[in-house]
Design goal:
By secondary structure, the chain is mainly β. It has helices at residues 122-130, 164-167, 201-204, and strands at residues 4-5, 9-18, 33-39, 43-48, 55-61, 63-64, 67-68, 79-87, 90-102, 105-116, 118-121, 146-147, 161-162, 182-184, 187-198, 211-226, 246-247, 256-264. It has a 7-stranded antiparallel sheet with strand order 1-2-9-10-15-16-18, with no helix packed on it. Strands 3-4-5-8 form a 4-stranded antiparallel sheet, with no helix packed on it. A 3-stranded mixed sheet has the order 14-11-17.
């Protein structure tokens, strides 16, 4: 699409959008679930009949009338194993590129977006338990007994206090099920930006070069929005479908900036 086009100025917009709506219809006679990969924390990535590809299975809370149930013996949450706790398939993905040119100058930038697609963060699973993240420094988390919000199996409010020793893990895997560490993998990114200048034809007179352009190009410049804490939602360990939806120990993604020089003969 070209919203504006004049003798010296042009604005061009390119957009793309896609949605993958899928369902695992059948696998093999007698098999209704195919294990794709197993993650730390007792979470697995699956192809399960009747579900979209990428089902995440792991422990969830036990609920009573919509309230999380506390184990009266420990004061910690009762966990319900082998539950569907997410799915890695995004609702949709898309991007939009704006390109501007004025005389010999050009400017363009690409915004990438992903909506949905769950990610299990093993970083948060362990990090909140060990006190690594700033969330664990809030309030009385580290040095005073706390009472986890929820109800006892008989429906009465929980009044069982965790001691400071047990309290140290109350935000991590020692108390919370794996479902507490499943995050929405949506993001909005400034994927690429460039600025360039086309040399005037007069400077190329008498040479075999009929076009020359110099550009500064940057990629992965800015994560404008994301929901996954402390990690890039795209930086999955190992790469490929088997690791999709699993964030653990990923190295920070880099910004790449370079210079591009183009000659046409």
């Amino acid at each position: 699409m070209v919203p504006i086009k004049s003798k010296d100025f042009t604005w061009n917009i390119d957009a793309n959008w896609s949605k993958n709506k899928n369902q695992v219809v059948s696998i093999y006679p007698g098999i209704s679930n195919l294990l794709v990969n197993s993650f730390q924390g007792g979470v697995s990535l699956n192809a399960r009949e009747g579900e979209a590809w990428g089902t995440l299975v792991g422990a969830d809370y036990t609920y009573l009338n919509g309230q999380k149930v506390i184990d009266p013996k420990t004061g910690k949450y009762l966990q319900n194993p082998n539950q569907i706790i997410g799915n890695t398939t995004p609702d949709w993905i898309g991007g939009i590129r704006n390109s501007f040119s004025y005389k010999g100058f050009s400017l363009s930038f690409l915004i990438d977006m992903r909506k949905g697609g769950d990610v299990f963060s093993t970083d948060m699973y362990y990090g909140l338990s060990s006190g690594l993240y700033k969330e664990t420094a809030v309030g009385d988390y580290r040095d005073k007994p706390i009472v986890l919000p929820g109800v006892l199996p008989d429906g009465s409010p929980n009044t069982i206090a965790l001691s400071p020793v047990d309290n140290n893990g109350s935000m991590g895997y020692k108390t919370q099920p794996a479902s507490a560490f499943v995050y929405d993998g949506s993001f909005i990114k400034l994927r690429e930006a460039s600025i360039g200048y086309m040399l005037p034809k007069s400077l190329l007179a008498g040479t075999k070069i009929y076009d020359a352009k110099i550009s500064i190009v940057g990629r992965n410049l800015w994560i404008i929005h994301k929901n996954l804490p402390y990690a890039d939602p795209e930086a999955m360990v190992g790469g490929g479908l088997n690791s999709y939806g699993w964030s653990i120990g990923s190295m920070p993604t880099t910004r790449d900036i370079g210079v591009n020089v183009t000659f046409k003969f």
